[in-house]
Amino acid sequence: MRKIILTSNLYLPNIGGIENSLKHLAEVGSKDTELTIVSSNIVEGQQNHSCGLQNENGYNIVRYNVPPLKNKYLKAFVHILSAIKTYRKLKDKHTIIVARYHLNVIFAYFSGFKDIRYLVPGVVKNQNNKNNRSNSNRISYFIDCLFQKLAFKVARKTFVFSDSMFAQVKDICPEINIIKVRPGIDSNRFFVGDMNNNETVNLLIVSRLVAAKGISFAIEALNYLPSNYTLTIVGEGPDRNELTKIVDDNKLSTRVFFVGKTSTPEQFYKKCDIFLLPSIYEPFGQTILEASACGLPTVAFDPQIVSTATIEILGDRAFLAGKLDSESYAIAIKHAFMKLRCDDNFRDDIHQFIINKYSWKRLFDEIIYS
Fold first, then answer.
1. Domain range spanning residue 215?
2. Do 217 and 326 meet the contact criterion of CB atoms below 8 Å apart?
3. Which whole-number Å values give the CA distances from 86 to 40, 64, 71, 199, in the listed order?
4. How far from the centroid of its chain's Cα atoms is residue 197's Cα?
5. pLDDT of residue 132
6. Is residue 33 in a domain?
7. Which pLDDT score is estimated for 297?
8. Whether the predicted pLDDT of 197 surpasses 80
9. Do residues 324 and 236 both lie within one domain?
10. Domain total for the chain?
11. Upper half-sphere CA count for residue 21 (Cβ side, 13 Å)
12. How far apart are CA 211 and CA 214, in angstroms?
C-alpha cells in the first residue's frame, strides 16, 4: 500500500482553505493508501493543540510541537527543528509527500524525502506584495519569496489551480514542470437551500480581511444600492479596523455586519442571496465553489482588470464589474439579483455545474497517480 503524507504549517481547528483541503484529500485518499497529515500544533488565536499521533476516519494526524515563544526568530528556529525531526521519523523511500505550504516543502526536502509534490495555495511574490497585503513586511516578504522559489525547485512536481497561478509560477521558475489541476467541493456540506423570499437582499463575503480581497469596494457599493441590500462579512484579518472605519464613515453600520471567522461557512451561504468576491488578487477562489454549490451567483471584477480566476471557474455564469470602482460593482450586483428573480433554474444550474466540474477524489488521483 502506498504511503502518503499530506502536510502544511497549519491544520484544523485553524480555519482556511488549505486546512479544509488537507482534510478532504485525506478522507478520499485514505480508502486505498496509508495516509498521514503532518502539521504544527499551532492554533491561531488559541492555545496550541496537543501533539502526537491521532487517528481520525482512517487516517493519522501527527502534530509537531512549536512552543508559544515571544521571540519570533527563536520560534522559527524551533519550528524548523521540530518539523524536520518529525518528518525524519516518518521517512520511507516509498512515501509521497504532498505539501500545501512552501516551507513544508523545504522541511521535507532537508529531511531526505525525494518525492515531494507541491500543491501551491498562492504565489507569495504576487499575493503578499504591498498592494495586496497592507501590513506586508518588506524583509519577511523577500525571504518568503526566496523560500518559495526554492520550494518550486526542489519539489518533484508542482500543481496549480488556475491559469493565472500557472503563469505566475512560470515567471519565477520557467524551467520547472507545472501541472494544472482542479480542487474539489463537498456536496454534502454545500447544497442549494431555500430561496429567500423576504424584501431584504442579503449579500455575503467569506474572506480573510486583507487588502487583496478588495472588501472596501463591496462596502461602498451599498451607497449605490437600495437600503434593503445588506452585507454580511465572514472572516477576520489585519484590515478589520480599517474596514470598520469605512463602514462608519459611510454611515452603513445598520447594513454591514462583521461576524468573525467560522468553521461552518455553509450556514451563511444558505441564508444569503448573492456572493461577493471583490478581490483584486485571487489565485483561485475556493469560496466561489462553495457559494456556487449553494446556488448563489458570484459578483466579481472582470479578470481583465484584476488578477483572479473567476471567469476560468464560472465562465458566463459570473457577474462582472467592468471598472474597478464601487459604482460598477453595485451595477453588477443588481444584474445578479435580476438573474435570480427572472431565472428559477439558475440556482440549481450553478450548483450542478460546480459539482460536476470539481471533485476531491479526482484531485487526489491526479496528484498521486500522475
1. 201-356
2. yes
3. 10, 7, 22, 55
4. 31
5. 63
6. yes
7. 98
8. no
9. yes
10. 2
11. 27
12. 6
Instruction: Considering only residues 110 and 194, tell me which one the structure prediction assigns the higher pLDDT.
Output: 110
Region 272-287 average pLDDT: 94
The reply to whether 38 falls in a domain is: yes
Cβ atoms 26, 6 nearer than 8 A: yes
Which residue's C-alpha cell is 485571487? Answer: 282
Q: Which three cell numbers stand for residue 350?
A: 450553478
Residue 191 placed within a domain? no
263 with 310, same domain: the answer is: yes
Q: In terms of domains, do 244 and 168 share one?
A: no
Kindly state the average pLDDT of the residues 295-313: 94
- Asked whether residue 194 is domain-assigned, the answer is no
Residue length of the chain? 370
pLDDT in tens, 65-103: 999 998 988 999 999 999 999 999 998 877 999 999 999
One domain for residues 32 and 60: yes
**How many angstroms separate the CA atoms of 231 and 229, rounded?**
7
* Residue at grid coordinates 460546480: 354
DSSP assignment of 104-173: HHHHHHHTT---EEEE-S--HHHHSSTTT-TT--HHHHHHHHHHHHHHHHH-SEEEESSHHHHHHHHHH-
d(CA 306, CA 162): 14
239 CA to centre of own chain: 18
Identify the CATH number of the domain in which residue 164 sits. 3.40.50.2000
Name residue, grid cell 508559544: 68
Per DSSP, which regions of 201-326 are E strands? 201-206, 229-234, 256-260, 274-277, 281-282, 298-301, 307-308, 319-321
On whether both 219 and 331 belong to a single domain, the answer is yes
For residue 294, give the C-alpha cell. Answer: 449553494
- Candidates 70, 95, 71, 86; CA nearest to 9 is 86
Whole-number percent of the chain with pLDDT over 90: 84
pLDDT digits (tens, 9 = 90+) for 111-149: 999 999 999 999 999 887 766 666 667 888 899 999 999
**Which of 328-331's residues contact partners 24+ apart within 8 Å by CB, and which partners?**
329/217, 329/218, 329/221, 329/278, 329/299, 329/301, 330/221, 330/222, 330/223, 330/224, 330/225, 331/224
Residues 203, 274: Cα–Cα separation, whole Å: 5
Task: Identify which of 75, 56, 61 has the alpha carbon closest to the alpha carbon of residue 8.
Answer: 61
